[in-house]
Amino acid sequence: MPDAQASGTVSGDAAACALAxxxxxxxxxxxxxxxxxxxxxxxxSAQPDRWGEDVATLFDVADRAGDGAxxxxxxxxxxGEVFALRHAGLTAVAVTxxxxxxxxxxxxxxxxxRDLAAGTPLPTFxxxxxxxxxxxxxxxxxxxT
Amino acid sequence: xxxxPHRVLLDRVSGYADEAAAYMRRRRASRRPFARLYYxxxxxxxxxxxxxAGSELFVAAGRLIEVAxxxxxx
Lengths: 145, 74
Hints:
heterodimer, A: about 140 residues, alpha+beta, Beta-Lactamase, five-stranded antiparallel β-sheet, two-stranded antiparallel ribbon, 3 helices, globular, B: about 70 residues, two-stranded antiparallel sheet, 2 strands
């Protein structure tokens, strides 16, 4: 079943917010990026200029490796693991430590892309003093601290 | 008749050696690199590291891991 396209243009701010949310949710995450339909990097946690080309190469190789368009890629190496997922014309890529929980990581990435594509505001986390404990708040709840 | 004391010791040592060998086998299996592609409908495909597609996938993944860099210290 082909993926539906994103309902509207995803802004860089929304993608950055989504990326921050993913980073907070996944303790094993090293870096991640969200790439738009045209291959433009919407948000990246490290070296934004390099993600676009490398993600395109990864999916190009993956599509050629099998028959048909690949939906998800999971590669584990000694140096870390790569998770990549396409949904609604958007692509999320995450690099994690070894032995990250694959199904949870894919679940988080998929729900993030689904919300981004639908234009749903994502919940955000506000780090508390000390940086250890986090308080979850939803946008628009008026929890201004 | 109870077994001779040295037999008990030998059995115990060989038991520990078997456990260690099994642990190393499991560790080797879990640390082996893998490349898995998922298609719509839940179909998945594994690509061996020594295959053409597999090696290309590992090179592409290696570039992304390099871009990501090391994990930031908390």
